[in-house]
């Protein structure tokens, strides 16, 4: 919508997407709240988000994260489903999972 009305550029939307007032804030905060209700799962996702390569997860954790739309599979391994998730959750989960 903002692009169509020329109120923002794609670059500005992408660069501010993980900020507290970013365009995806409600979705990201909802996913973060869900992860924080299961700290073991949150810290597993932190490992996924901060890994440079796809990693292996147990089937149940992978199922939970896939159900949230946070991961995708690559040759039986998992990685964040998009760079937005990698950036946001890598930052948000750092303090509690390091």
Which sheet architecture does the biggest sheet show? 2 strands, antiparallel
Provide the residue-averaged pLDDT. 91
Number of domains: 1
Strand order of the largest sheet: 1-2
Helix content: 55-70%
Q: Strand share of the residues?
A: 5-15%
Q: Determine the N-to-C terminus distance.
A: 38 Å
Radius of gyration: 14 Å
Strand segment count: 2
CATH architecture descriptor name: Orthogonal Bundle
- The H/E string reads HHHHEEHH
**What's the CATH class, please?**
Mainly Alpha
Attribute tags:
mainly alpha; Arc Repressor Mutant, subunit A; two-stranded antiparallel ribbon; 8% strand
Task: Note down, in words, how this protein is organized.
The protein is mostly helical. The protein has a single domain, classed as Arc Repressor Mutant, subunit A. Helices cover 55% and strands 8% of the residues. The chain is built from six helices and two strands, in the order H-H-H-H-E-E-H-H. The protein has a two-stranded antiparallel sheet. Strand 1 and strand 2 form a beta hairpin. Helix 3 crosses helix 5. The chain is globular and about 45 Å long. The termini are far apart.
Structure described in brief:
The protein has 98 residues and is mainly alpha-helical. It is built from 6 helices and 2 strands.
Describe the protein's topology.
Elements: H1 10-16, H2 25-36, H3 39-50, H4 59-67, E1 71-74, E2 77-80, H5 83-92, H6 94-97
Antiparallel strand pairs: 1-2
Helix pairs in contact: 3-5
């Amino acid at each position: 919508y903002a692009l169509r009305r020329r109120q923002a550029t794609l670059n500005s939307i992408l660069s501010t997407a993980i900020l507290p007032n970013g365009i995806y804030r409600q979705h990201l905060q909802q996913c973060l709240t869900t992860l924080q209700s299961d700290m073991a799962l949150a810290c597993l996702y932190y490992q996924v988000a901060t890994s440079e390569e796809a990693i292996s997860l147990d089937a149940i954790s992978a199922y939970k994260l896939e159900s949230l739309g946070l991961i995708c599979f690559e040759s039986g391994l998992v990685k964040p489903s998009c760079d937005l998730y990698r950036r946001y959750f890598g930052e948000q989960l750092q303090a509690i999972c390091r």
